[in-house]
Backbone:
């Protein structure tokens, strides 16, 4: 299949994704997750129609403009492709870095002028050298800062650099994603579940819901392979104490006993058990909830299927799987 890109012609192998084919022949595109989640490899079709699968999860306006994800595109017809800047780019700097746990950093950026977002969306963060990574926003608009939760990886090009990057310039691209609070539904129960730094968008959605006066129950579940990964307990407990509609649970996924973060919540061994209790024995009705699932991809997909089969409409299940290949951390 012929692809025209930046004045040159490229031939893709049968069944070969556009991103892989371009890279194989020496062309370079920004990329990270290669699963369609991070939207780093967004490009535009000047001629030809990209396959529908390559546009899943994109804004309707972007689809109308011919934008698609190169990593998910196995062309069905010849295409002429160009780079695109669908999302804005904003220069800013790292203002504060705090170690939340041995494996998680809190990174605060100065909110750039003109940058508009909704809590829970994600951005592409770029530093000098062209290193780019996606991070979700735990902060809410109007605070003058952007709060990121960064998983630390040994030798990570971005995560290790950020550990000592206070004062350093960075670029923010975005925002991306549909993981945010719906202000028009103050009476709809919210179910939020995530693993690791998947807490970041869940915390953003929770903060936005409480700020908007959400009245229905909010159940937030955070899981980690180890106890040290359950971070920000103090803030979560304070939020739950101030807001009786908020119930927060923490679980160690390896099988050790987890701890409930509010006095009236039960202890649970694994995150799935706590969710099963909430969905099967109450108090949540899956058919009535709006759901947010973030973190480890297998966990997100498994829980999405479980909730859909339990009655939650797909349109009310918002997923943000965190894909971080070891070679790209």
Residues:
């Amino acid at each position: 299949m012929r692809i025209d890109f930046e004045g040159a012609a490229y031939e893709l192998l049968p069944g070969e994704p556009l991103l892989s084919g371009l890279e194989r022949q020496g062309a370079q595109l920004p990329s990270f997750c290669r699963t369609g989640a991070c939207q780093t490899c967004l490009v535009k079709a000047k001629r030809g129609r990209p396959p529908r699968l390559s546009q899943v999860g994109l804004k309707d306006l972007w689809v109308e403009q011919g934008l698609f994800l190169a990593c998910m595109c196995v062309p069905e017809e010849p295409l002429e492709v160009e780079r695109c800047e669908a999302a804005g780019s904003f220069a800013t700097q790292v203002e504060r870095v705090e170690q939340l746990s041995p494996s998680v950093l809190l990174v605060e950026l100065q909110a750039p002028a003109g940058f508009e977002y909704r809590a829970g969306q994600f951005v592409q963060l770029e530093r000098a050298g062209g290193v780019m990574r996606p991070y979700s926003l735990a902060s809410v608009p109007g605070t003058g800062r952007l709060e990121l939760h960064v998983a630390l990886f040994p030798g990570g090009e971005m995560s290790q650099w950020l550990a000592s990057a206070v004062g350093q310039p960075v670029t923010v691209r975005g925002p991306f994603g549909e993981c945010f609070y719906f202000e028009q539904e103050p009476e709809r129960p919210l179910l939020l579940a995530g693993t690791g730094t998947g807490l970041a968008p869940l915390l953003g959605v929770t903060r936005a819901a409480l700020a908007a006066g959400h009245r229905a129950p909010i159940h937030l579940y955070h899981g980690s392979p180890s106890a040290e990964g359950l971070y920000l307990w103090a803030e979560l407990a304070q939020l739950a104490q101030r807001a009786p509609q908020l119930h927060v649970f923490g679980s160690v996924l390896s099988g050790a006993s987890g701890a409930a973060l509010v006095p009236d919540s039960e202890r649970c061994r694994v995150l799935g058990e706590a969710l099963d209790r909430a969905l099967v024995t109450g108090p949540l009705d899956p058919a009535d909830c709006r759901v947010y699932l973030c973190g480890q991809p297998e966990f997100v997909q498994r829980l999405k299927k479980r909730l859909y089969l339990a009655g939650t409409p797909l349109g009310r299940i918002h997923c943000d799987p965190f894909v971080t290949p070891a070679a790209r951390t």
Summary: DSSP finds seven helices and 16 strands in the chain. The longest strand covers residues 88-101. The longest helix spans residues 199-211.
